[in-house]
Design brief:
single chain, 280 residues, alpha/beta, Rossmann fold, two-stranded parallel ribbon, 11 helices, globular
């Protein structure tokens, strides 16, 4: 049995699908099982990584676990680490972290993921850490304004980045969940090409056959926007400084996905073509 947390998310849903295709039994931890909309052969149990009791129960009888934390990832990692200790017997664990931990500019997102790695790693010393940068699906942040206004106002700056397909991340996760050769490894994962935000918008424009306007929001405006959502202005300031820094660690490709999977990862253009309906 393999446990998947975040099973209804952008990466977790692909992890579930790939595990099922390979013939593995899957258990999913969901905050709302009634709305999880997972295949009937997936055992869905109620709870979240932030609930130590529910997580420990979900880990009972499990050989491997995929852990995806959302929101305050440090706060979620602490009770899940306790659940790992209580349950015991989990031979393989894969944590979806972030390459933000490698950013030379200290910021809250990086600090939270770094703390989560340490907490989960202390409870599961053989854990595999996946450290992706931005996902192809991050461009869905722009979908509403593209559909309604034909424009993108970008909050994350216009630095070069190598976005990765969530399904490629899932393929790497499944490899690590089903083979002991990835124990204690830390994988920084990128897509196959470097694109700025403006270049991603041009790809979407080409796919849609429609001109799109692009502009970058000023950092001060982005800080105010993030602070209004979280109520934490100091965190918003450090996060925006990191996102707008020219030293983002995801600003180049590294070939790790291709090396691990034996094939090239999917390009942003191929992903955008498949999901063009979401922008129309």
């Amino acid at each position: 049995m393999i446990l998947v947390t975040g099973a209804t998310g952008k990466v977790g849903r692909h992890v579930v699908a790939r595990l099922r295709e390979a013939g593995h039994r899957v258990r999913a931890l969901s905050r709302d099982p009634a709305r999880a909309d997972l295949p009937p052969d997936v055992e869905v149990v109620a709870g979240s990584p932030g609930d130590a009791d529910a997580s420990a129960a979900a880990l009972a009888g499990v050989d491997a676990a995929f852990v995806c934390l959302v929101g305050d990832v440090e706060a979620g990692a602490r009770p899940f680490a306790e659940a790992i200790r209580r349950a015991g017997g989990v031979r393989r664990l894969v944590l979806l972290s972030s390459s933000a931990v490698l950013h030379p500019v200290r910021h809250r997102i990086g600090d939270e993921h770094r703390a989560a790695e340490e907490l989960i790693g202390a409870a599961a010393p053989d854990a595999t850490l996946l450290r992706p940068g931005p996902f192809h699906t991050n461009s869905l942040w722009w979908a509403k304004s593209i559909r309604e206004q034909g424009r993108v106002r970008c909050l994350v700056g216009n630095n070069p980045g190598a976005p990765v397909d969530p399904d490629d991340l899932a393929a790497v996760a499944v490899a690590a969940l089903t083979s002991g050769e990835h124990a204690r490894r830390r994988y920084e994962l990128t897509g196959p090409e470097v694109l700025t935000s403006a270049e991603q918008v041009r790809v979407i424009s080409d796919v849609l056959g429609r001109d799109l306007d692009f502009e970058v929001a000023a950092p001060e405006e982005v800080v105010a926007t993030f602070a209004s959502i979280t109520g934490d202005r100091p965190a918003a300031e450090t996060n925006v400084a990191a996102l707008h820094s020219p030293r983002v660690p995801w600003g180049r490709t590294n070939g790790t996905v291709e090396r691990l999977l034996g094939r090239k990862p999917r390009t942003f253009r191929d992903w955008a073509a498949e999901h063009a309906h979401l922008f129309r």
